[in-house]
Batch of 2 targets.
Target 1
Amino acid sequence: MRKRISLLAAAGLAAVGLAAAPANAADPVFTLTSPAEVGLRPHPGQSGQPKKTSVEFRIENETGSVFDRLSTFTIDLSPLKGVADVALPKDRGGDCTLVAAKVTCKDWAIWTHGSNVVSLDLTAAKDSVVGTVADLTMTGTADGATFKPATTKVKVGGPDLVLGPAALKAKLTPGETQPLPIVFTNAGTESVNGVALEVNTTHGIGLVEKYDNCSYSKNDTPGRPWNAGWGTTVCVLDGEYKPGTVYEVKSALTLKAEPHAFIDGMTYAVHAAGAQPKTSQKQERPSTGKKLTVVEREAKAGPLSADIDPSDNQHEFDFQTKNTADFVARAVSLKGKAGETVKADFGFENKGPAWVAYLRSGEDVARTDIVIPQGAKVTKAPEQCSGVNADGSYREQKLGAPRYFCGTTHIVGETEKVSYPFELKIEKVVADATGSISVGQWTADGTKPQDWDPSHANNKAAFVINAKDGGTTPTPGPTTTGTPAPTGSATPSATPSAGASTSASTAATAQGGLANTGVTAGPLLIAGAALVAAGGAVFLAFRRRATGRA
């Protein structure tokens, strides 16, 4: 919902001069945006009822500051007479009205970056003619500001690529392969000149074959954890794709569960060539002498639906691979005199073989529980670590706590070292002062071993200050060993911890972030819808909203 400032608040800002533009300063320029073109299913549609298409108008504010004056936005609907019927969504937000042939929206603040002005629902008019095109334009006005208008071409009919769902196996073993069948049709009224097939897979699932007309990219950008883990393949399939015709990819496309696969997923989509989502990631274009090809096939009754709607261009699937990830706590031994401040690097290492990623839920993979030995006081702790009381209960003060809970991000790579750098002051020398470092699943009063961790004995290690034997770190007694199982739970009990970050370095980061030594990444489709399919459910929805019309 767009943030708004009330009339009273805006008046108050104006009274103290906050809303007034600086004298002789140039007016800010704001850009209105909307899709370049949208297509409408011809009236009345296959179901006998008009099929709506939504058009979103937005405003971009790149001035770096909020514009605190009343702005009015107008859309003239008269060009759509006889072409399309327009309605405001029932659950709309904001101050918008539709009277006669005009939509008017008012807002008291234009916040920085992009925000929604209004979304319109369009359906083809009863007597509209296929192929008719009309312009839908939004303009804006405000004292002390200039607006660049936005225009969307509305067309009755057009091409409509519809992708059929592939029959895939959800339960896998490391190294297992299976074919990825791709079948699609053009259910629209016009041909498509060229199709782009896009396949996004998480780090544990890969495509075996390489083709010259395909590009391959991985998102390994550091500091972008919500995109981490994905690889993208885009294959451009030349030719004319006619209305009412069904096509299938003839060449082999094979999915493989990598040795580190565990809880993974994929999305696959078809777009009109040139309309596929763009990526800024480095792309690999192989030279194999092989080309991915498509053939026509006889249309069969099946799940292919028909509407001019990019949402039917894409499908999603989740996988669970039978695998384990061995999280090993690192023992720590320190020495120091009374009054000295010492540094300690706490954390754990994933010995693999699996990576662990809660891409659906976005929850922390693990918690590290650090018990501070007697005689020491924490003077510096990472952002993602919270000080708690000795029994694990809430504590307001972070520093000086007897115990700390530290979270990860939602991804821990198969060879990752997680580090939490602390500083401690030795207030009193206590020989063999002993605490502990434990890693596992979140619980109300600490941690417990994960079901998928094959060795629970190494989930806990000792933290010793001034060991009597000169530095040898004792090992705590063994705990029970769990049964390895790729649970893939949709509701892992880990609780998110703020401030966790991801690094692309090969060693534990100095800031307590995660060192990514094995996780590759690719642009996610997405902005955020749920991946609901068979298999594991712990994986964030990264559906990329289709841009343009297929």
Target 2
Amino acid sequence: MTPALPERTRRMLGSAAASVAANAGPLGAAGVGLLAFLAIYGPAALDPTRLGWLIRDDFSQHLLGWLFFRNEPWRFPLGAIDGYLHPLGTTLGYMDAIPWVALLLRPFSGLLPADFQYIGPWMCACLMLQGASAAWVARRTGATVAQQWLVGALLVLSPTLLARMSMAHEALCAHWTLILLVGLHLAPQRDARDAKQALGIALALCVFAAGVHPVIAAMVLALALSLCARTALERKLPWRWPVLGAVVHVGSVLVLFYVLGYLGTVRTLGAGSFGGFSADLLAFVNPLGYQRDFSWSRFLSPLPRQGAQYEGFGYLGLGVLFALWAALVLVVRDAPLVARHWRRWVPVALVALGLFFFALSSRVTLRGELIADLTRLYAPVMRWVEPFRSSGRFVWPLYYLLALGAALALIRLPKPTVAPSLLALALALQAFDVNLGRGHQAKEGPAWNTQPSDALRELAVGREHLVLYPPQMHDGSGRGCRAGPMDFHRWAYRAYRLGLTFNSGYVARLDDARAQSYCLGLDDDIRAGRLDPRTVYLSIPQRLHEFRAIRGTRCVQEERLWMCVLEQAPAPPVERAAP
């Protein structure tokens, strides 16, 4: 006979079962997100010890930021990295390495394997939270569990999020934060408790987003301020609460930007080319993604756009477009009812439309053709908008307002017997339409993350630095020194494995004056024969003669470069006595 469970154990199991039942909607939608990730990337991407598939595109930059940070002592600003782009250094933020995750894992770095990545698990978590957040919002509006699953699954299949993953922009995949904030606008605030909870969640999301990516943080902050306005209009709290909330939201983001090194570590935050990385007016119906030969829709044809407007990609998908059409019909039918809830949707609509206007940038286009030049309008504030030169990304708040708002309208406005069928039809259309693509699996790339060779290990004994000559250090605007080879990633990885600093790399922002000074100084030192005995130099073949002309150097060829070290310092010149 099976012995009875202790009373305490039975209570714990009962409490856990009740919690799962109460959150069945968000948990089920999170499961849909997990299945979507496995279908796109496969389970291998969740293996934190697999690095080879992360060589492509920007993944390698983000991975190297985390790896080099593991060798750094704690210092201010948090996330400072001295060993990458040495001696200039950089930060986790400018490596797009998701600072909060790296800072959380850093104390346990000694327990983790040398080859360890969190990019795959992070993207999986973003997809799961995408579904869970949409389902949670649906639950707040009175949806059944089945309807919560349908809404969550519909938002999981957002081409805009899936496209960011395919573009290797994992830090920009935290779209669930936008869904939560849009949802907090659309959900009812029944009493002061609901209002306080909404402001608290908004503050938590501001703090979180500030340590993920500045673009996500800017959108989250704008929506949080909009939520403060909505809370003030609802009058469930004294006006001091939303005003204080707005001040705290802004202050927390600015302070964290300084603490994490986004502010105060480079001379300019501008990136140039504002107006090129924008959104087109037809972004929501254009399935053309980053690659010119790839469409995110199986049915709709790509529309023309300008070259860099992939940053403004915002295709909604046929399912969401159907839901939006049906929702508009219902809204027109029930206009008086919708108008009574204007405090919910007017603040967020104004902010989302304002951000969409910014996404169009100073060069407004329709089907890729310029229809309005707003350069004069932006000229007085260009120093403030240039840091967000990829303005096309700011279509996302309006994107999720349309997608989530349409889904919630299909729950609240039609007859209860019709709502599930409309949602199911929208999800079916979305699933059939969205092209999950090709080339997004976690396939191994070139063998850049190979172990250091025996020759390199021998040369590195007792040395501290690995220096690529000429250097290849640049940022997204092309600032810096770009004479060196572009395939520097595998050498950076080898420097990490050997505990050496590395002088090259790609970062989001770079101090151009310091970079030019370093590169020119390195040229002068090598031509003058001033080699550092603590350094292993990696020379391109065209510069090898400069090292061979220096007495006491030894050079060994590896791959397409030459590794040179100073084995003995040259004797100082003998001064001749004056005649």
